[in-house]
Structures are given as C-alpha cells and as structure tokens.
Design goal:
PhoU_dom, Methane Monooxygenase Hydroxylase, Chain G, domain 1, Phosphate-specific transport system accessory protein PhoU, single chain, PhoU-like_sf, phosphate transport, mainly alpha, transport
Amino acid sequence: MIEKYVLDLDELKKSFIEMADMSKKIINDAMESLMERDKERAKATYQYDRLIDLKELEIEERCIRILALYSPEAADLRLVVSILKSIVDLERIGDLARDICETAIRLSEVPPIKPYVDLPRMLKIVSDMLKDSVMSLLRGDVELAKDVIDRDDIVDSFYERLFDELVEISRKNPESAAVAVRLILVIKSLERVGDHATNIAEYAIYYKTGDVVKHKKAQEYLKKLKEKEKNENRGD
C-alpha cells in the first residue's frame, strides 16, 4: 500500500511537470507566432490548448484518487492540494496563449506598428517565472518561490511601460489604434501569465510552510484600508 502510494505521488508530480512544460510551450509558441507573423503556426498553437485541457482533467483525477484512497496528511496533503490548485493556473495560461494566437492570426496580415524589442524580454521573464514557480513547488523551495513573486513587479513595470508606448502610438497615429489595442491585449495576457506563475509560487510556500500567502496579502490590504479610514476620519 505504501509503495503504491509513493508511486502514485511520483506519477502525479510527473504529470504536473508535463502540464507545466505544455503551458510554457504554448505561451512561447503563441508569442513567437505573433512576433514572426506566422499565421499557420498560430493556428496550430491555438489547437494545442485542447491537449492542456485534457491534461488538467487527468491530473485532477489523479489528485482526487490520491485524496480518496490514501487520505494523505500534513505536507503530502498540502502538496496534492497545491498541485490541484496550480493546474487551474496552468490551464488559464493555455487560454491566454490561445487569445494571443487569435491576435497573431489577425496581425499577420498587417505591418507591425513598432519593432518587437521588448516583447521577447517580457516573454523571457514570465517564461522563467513559470518554470521556477513549478520547480519551487515540487522542491518545496521557499526562497525560489519568493524570488518568483518578487519578479512579478518587473513584469508589471514592463506592462505599464509598453501600455504607455502603445497609447502614445495610437495618439500620434490614429490609424494604428486598432493594432495597438490588440497588442495591449497581448501584453496584458503576458502580465497575467506572470500572475499565474506567482500564484503557483504562493502555493509552493503553502506546501512547504502551511502559510497561505494570499490571505496575508488580503489582511495587509484590509489593515491599510482601515488605517486610511482612521486618518481620513481624524482629518474630518
């Protein structure tokens, strides 16, 4: 029984790595099809999302089976729960990549409004965040998880700067506004990939320590709101 339990856990981790690799592949392929204006590659990548959906169902079934058969406790329970939550983020990354493919298909027929210099850099950061977040979860590496979370600020900075650039391009050249809007949606999708990688890193911290980072952030936010209300009331 114990040997089968260990084997099932190992198979779960293996499947999780496979799904993470699929999510990383689809976001990279989607962005490359956009930057290379490769319509056919974008179409093929769009269809690849179906495989990620199937992988999510497979892993979900594995998690439920382990929970039902073995009733894992402590760290093992947190690992299974963390993987169960993380596959939702991985699946959503596939959805975001599919959205980028739709834009790639549309923009393949029109000339670019600006050189794609910053997009590869932003893609590299979120792709590395995704890889490292998964590794931090599987290894229980809290420091690596915290590093992933910190990198999300860099992604946000990229998004804000590129957003401002595209808005300025639209202002100066109204005829390019439609393309600029689509590119804004692309960089927003990349920013969201960073958010999903951050979520997985937070699950890694939960797996290792039992701390729910999201709840702490919410508590800190509420505390700041209360302090702000007190200061405003004093001003009155």
